[in-house]
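User: Teach me something about this protein's shape.
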Amino acid sequence: MAKLAIAGGRPELRVRWPKWPVRDRHEERALLRVLRSGLWYRGENVRKFEEGFARFQAAGYGVTCNSGTAALEISLAVLGVGRGDEVIVPAYTFVATAGAVLRVGAKPVFADILPENLCIDPADVARKMGPRTRAIIPVHFAGHIADMDRLKKLARRKGVHIIEDACHAWGSRWRGKGAGAIGDCGAFSFQVSKNITAGDGGIILTDDESLAGRLRNFTNVGRKKGGAWYEHYTTSTNARMTEFQAAILGEQLKRLGRQTMKRQANARILDRGLAAIPGIRTVVTDPRHTRRAYHMYCFRLDLERLGTTRSRFLSALSAEGVPCTAGYGIPLYANPLFTGKKGGAGVPSRGAPCPEVERVVRDCCWIMHQNLLAPGSAMRGIVRAAAKVADHSAEL
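Assistant: First, the predicted structure itself:
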């Protein structure tokens, strides 16, 4: 096989990878319409996007807000989670999942993940539940929906809420039901790196009409539908989405279905090709998915077999023309926020360590979603490049 590019050989791939975010004249026209209308706040764009996104996810109701983090905090607060309570979260996730728990005064309890899909392990959730557990927040990591069948049974048995962190799962469906509307409610993010974006923004989905009303009141400084402007009924916040954000998201949503199917098709090419390479393990999609979003494509390295480190493998793969990253380098509970090291706050939590997360943060690799919009030939090139690096891994 040819010499590695990192050692002076010819790169396997010379691809102009898709840029993100995708935008064109449709977003420009939508923004100009809002600008010229003078109605920049809670107008038709917000309403239409809430309804359209809920419909896309097969959910009953959508309540927009200003970020995915806010969506999680608001969901917890409205469901009554607060001081003295515990909420179970996976240890392989972005800080916002646990940060939202802290913001409402509750304590995060870290659960391990399943090695085959990188989502929260229901068996470990069951082990770590206690008398103070009020909610579970499964993260649908990389667009793979956590085992909601087992989690819902567990939640019903213990009388706790499920708030889905669906901030990677725009378009994912489980037995035909969209992510975010399988539990009590679900939070989505529209931050700039996400598969549908307005720079920032969020939405909460639910099938519960009463809960949707309470969520909306909370985001709108405690006002009630039909109430007077200066009547406020609950302790709440202002987390409203603007008409500008909703106008952009409305156009982004029109592309999301096609983009989701493109990513899904390209992920299948990678699955078939990478699974055949000694030293590489793919992440398996549960057959209960009826549609699978990809915020990133993940694969894992058998570092002992390859005889190298993830850092060296990824450097070599990048030199071959493959855009790739290591993702999270430590479990969430190892952050200064929880350990108190390096001047961190050292806030209380429990549940650590999580052995599978400890392994994943050393051997998992990510290819981000925008690269899955490239032609299928580029995916086959990724497979060739990975095979080349794996074959020469002892030289790294």
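Now, about its shape. The mean pLDDT is 97. The domain at 25-252 is CATH 3.40.640.10 (Aspartate Aminotransferase; domain 2). If you'd like, I can walk through any region in more detail.
User: That's plenty for now, thanks!
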